[in-house]
Amino acid sequence: MLAYAIRRLGQSFFVLVVMSFLVFLGVFAIGNPIELLVNPQADEAERLRATVALGLDKPILEQYAIFLGHAAKGDLGRSFVFNVPAIQLILEKLPATIELALAAMVISVGLGIPLGLIAGLKPHSLVGRSIMALSIVGFSLPTFWVGLVLIMLFSVHLGWLPSNGRGETVMLLGIPVSFLTWDGLMHLAMPALNLALFKLSLLVRLTRAGTREAVLQDYVKFARAKGLGPGRVIGVHVLKNILVPIVTVIGLELGSLIGFAIVTESIFAWPGSGKLLIDSINLLDRPVIVAYLMVIVVLFIAINFAVDVLYSMLDPRVRLGSSSAAH
Amino acid sequence: MSAPLLEVDGLRMHFFTKAGVVKAVDDVSFRLERGKILGLVGESGSGKSMTGYSILGLVDAPGRIVAGRIALNGRDLTRLDEAAWRGLRGNRVAMIFQDPMMTLNPVLRIDTQMVEAVRAHHDVSREQALDRCREVLGRVGIASPDERLRAYPHQFSGGMRQRVAIAIALLNKPDLIIADEPTTALDVTIQGQILFEMQNLCRESGTGLIWITHDLSVVAGLADDVCVMYAGRVVESGSVDEILDRPLHPYTRGLLESVPSRNERGRPLRQIAGMTPSLLRLGEACAFRDRCSQAQPDCAAAPASSVPSAGRTLRCLHPASP
User: Fold this and answer.
1) Sequence ranges of the domains in chain A
2) Sites in chain B below the pLDDT cut of 50
3) What is the pLDDT of residue B322?
4) d(CA B12, CA B68)
5) What is the pLDDT of residues B156-167, one digit of tens each?
6) Residue B178 bridge partners (DSSP)
């Protein structure tokens, strides 16, 4: 297990380096930030001075080497726009996004798995068919449109839920969170539901497919032949068998929820890191873009590692670290 | 004399599909005394497994028991509700399935799968349940049960898994065990061991055993009585010696002649021509008549069950002469 963790760490480091290079190349291609940072009336000498000051006069590979050197010391650069460390900007905004993403994930898992089980156990019933039909709707409607409709319905017409902001927050372990206050919870409900809808539909379909396959297996019939009740047969025998693909998807989707909740954050004016990323791209604030994507890559790597560990706990046939059992 | 352990009388279990009614079990009757072994013999699709599932109440929609009586110790099971069935399953009636690779849940430890079977029926602590598990594993010939209990199914061979499945069936000292071809997927040597052990276990504990199989040689060495099934019906039944030595139904004869024998080496193997009929298009006529060498025009009428001699039944108008 330890050897496995160390090897994974090495792989992760390699991924991080490759990603940083691609991101660096990418932002380089977007455009020259000097055009946006310097007053349009500024003369050539002033432009040159700014270019040199930001280190943009050097060849890209040299810039990248400097970036790597600083990154190794934990410095991901300073924002061109705000002149503060990029990582500080991101860490200020990220907790709000993580809270939103986790709330969305709780909704998706809490509703998606039970609904998927029902649809899988009674595929031909009215309830099963309705769940599937609704999941198609959840799949195909664009997030921004659903967000607007939610605001129209719950904020404008019914006036039940606030349409923007985080509401009242309290500090939890030094991080401001919304979900512990009633006001914050009301603010969190709609964006989280909006963000959850697609994942919810995905989980419903995944759980249903797994359930339909699992209930036909002999071990389910054998469990029933032992005289076990339906709760134990479904909740333990079926569910534990179908959890591996579900956990995979949850892991991947959690990463993408955190990294790319931008549309929902924009609609509900949620002060998260998605908004920061959009602003940084608009202002060509390269250090923030690069640092943001680095943080997201680290998040993905960490989540995937957690998923792999979960696999081995869910399915004893999966053994971490040995190449022979890697199926 | 009290009621027999199991009495199945006129059991009909049909599947109601869009294509029509499939008569998977069609008027099946037999009885089983305590400590005896009944062989239920037939080809794939003859309804032998479905008969077993019916006795356990494990028939899933669109299947339904439409008629007949299944009496266990004199109590009719077909009138039970689901909760009462559940109290019976794994407790008074246990089942062992064909493929040991598939019957144990791959992601749960053996102790989990055994303890839950005990605690589904008895209000005991986990420790007490584990004691029972160790005892039963020892009885089916599994050494070092403590170590085995903590293992997962994939760490066992096929024969070992089937022993575990048998151990699970024995956990609550059932009155009746239904074994659905439990040795078909195993090596011949393992098959022999398991047959021998099952026979002993039943004799010792007075448990009745229904052994579902397509293999007549297994039945010959194991069973006391035999029911031969074809297309959902029992075509012939009787004691194992009677059936094997003096088969009356042409289908039973065909089955016996299909078994390759040393005396017939070099000659082409005998076979029963044709295929099992579709259960969808089954009329009242004898289902075997299309494949039967003895078939006469009157075989198109429903063949009633007759009693050619004491303890035997036969469903044929033109039986082979004994």
Assistant:
1) 90-283
2) none
3) 54
4) 6
5) 888 888 889 989
6) B95, B210
CA distances from B257 to A17, A157, A259, B253 (A): 73, 82, 71, 6
**Calculated CA dihedral for residues A229, A234, A235, A237, nearest 10 degrees:** 100
DSSP code of residue B13: E
Nearest CB to B120; choose among A228, A314, A315: A228
Q: How many Å lie between the alpha carbon of B42 and the closest alpha carbon of chain A?
A: 21
Residue A104, CA distances (Å) to A97, A119, A130, B133 in order? 10, 21, 22, 44
**Interface with chain A: mutation pick from B107, B122, B180, highest number of A CBs within 10 Å:** B107
Q: Tokens 């396959």 map to which residue? A: A213
CB atoms within 10 A of CB B160: 19
Of the candidates A247, A238, A259, the residue with the CA atom closest to the CA atom of residue A203 = A247
Q: Give the pLDDT confidence score for residue A106 in this predicted structure.
A: 93
H helix intervals, chain A = 2-30, 34-37, 44-53, 60-72, 86-121, 126-140, 143-150, 182-214, 218-225, 230-232, 239-259, 262-267, 273-282, 286-314
Distance between CA A235 and CA A316 in Å, rounded?
18
Is residue A143 exposed (0-12), middle (13-18) or buried (19+ Cβ within 10 Å)?
A: middle
What pairing do the DSSP bridges indicate for beta strands B225-230 and B37-41? parallel
**Among candidates A227, A241, A316 on the partner chain, residue whose Cβ is nearest the Cβ of B86:** A227
Q: Would you list which residues of chain B are within 8 Å, Cβ to Cβ, of chain A? A: 56, 58, 86-91, 94-95, 97-99, 102-109, 116-117, 120-121, 152, 154, 165, 168
CATH of A90-283, one of 3.10.450.60, 1.10.3720.10, 2.60.120.260, 3.40.350.10: 1.10.3720.10
CB atoms within 10 A of CB B301: 11
Measured between beta carbons, the chain B residues lying within 8 angstroms of A226 are 89-90, 94, 116-117, 120, 168
Mean pLDDT per block of 10 residues along chain A (327 residues) reads 79 86 82 73 77 77 82 78 83 86 92 92 88 88 87 84 76 74 82 89 92 90 89 90 87 82 84 84 83 85 84 77 44
